[in-house]
Write a structure and sequence with these properties.
- This protein has about 130 residues and is mainly alpha-helical.
- It contains eight helices and no strands.
- Helix content is about 60%, strand content about 0%.
- The model has no long low-confidence stretch (mean pLDDT about 80).
Length: about 130
C-alpha cells in the first residue's frame, strides 16, 4: 500500500493496489493506510478513470454487502455520508468512499444514469441506502 499511497493519485498503480488489498477482510483494522489509499482513489478521480475506480469499489461493497457476516453488521445511514470516526467494518468504509467518489464524479460531469449503472446491484440493506 505504501507504493500506491506515495504515488500520484491519478497513477493507475493506485487502482491496481486498491483492487488487490481493499475489502479482502470484513474488518479494516490496518490503521491509516487503507483510508489514505481510499482518499487517493478519490483525489485522483478523473473522467478517464471514474468508471474503473467506481465499479471497483462498487464490486467490493457488493461482495461484502451480500456476505453472510453482514447480518452481524450494524448500519447507520450517517456513516455513508458523515465522518467515519472509529469505524472498522470494511463494507461501511468502502460504501462511504464509494459515495464520495460518486459525488466527485458528478462534479466532473458524469451523468447520474451512468453512475447508477456502475453502482447498481448492491444488495441488502446497504444497497437500499445507496442512491445516486
Amino acid at each position: 500500500m505504501s507504493v500506491a499511497n506515495a504515488a500520484d493519485p491519478t497513477d493507475p498503480i493506485v487502482t491496481r493496489v486498491a483492487n488487490s488489498v481493499l475489502g479482502a477482510d470484513r474488518r479494516m483494522d490496518g490503521g491509516r493506510q487503507p483510508i489514505v489509499l481510499l482518499e487517493h482513489l478519490e483525489s485522483g478521480l478523473s473522467l478517464e478513470n471514474a468508471a474503473e475506480r467506481i465499479t471497483l469499489l462498487a464490486a467490493k461493497v457488493r461482495r461484502l454487502a451480500n456476505a453472510e457476516a453482514m447480518k452481524y453488521t450494524a448500519l447507520d445511514i450517517t456513516a455513508l455520508t458523515a465522518g467515519l470516526d472509529q469505524e472498522h467494518e470494511a463494507v461501511v468504509i468502502l460504501a462511504h468512499h464509494l459515495l464520495r467518489l460518486a459525488a466527485r464524479a458528478r462534479e466532473l460531469g458524469v451523468p447520474t444514469r451512468q453512475l447508477r449503472d456502475w453502482i447498481n446491484n448492491i444488495g441488502g440493506e446497504i444497497g437500499e441506502r445507496i442512491t445516486c
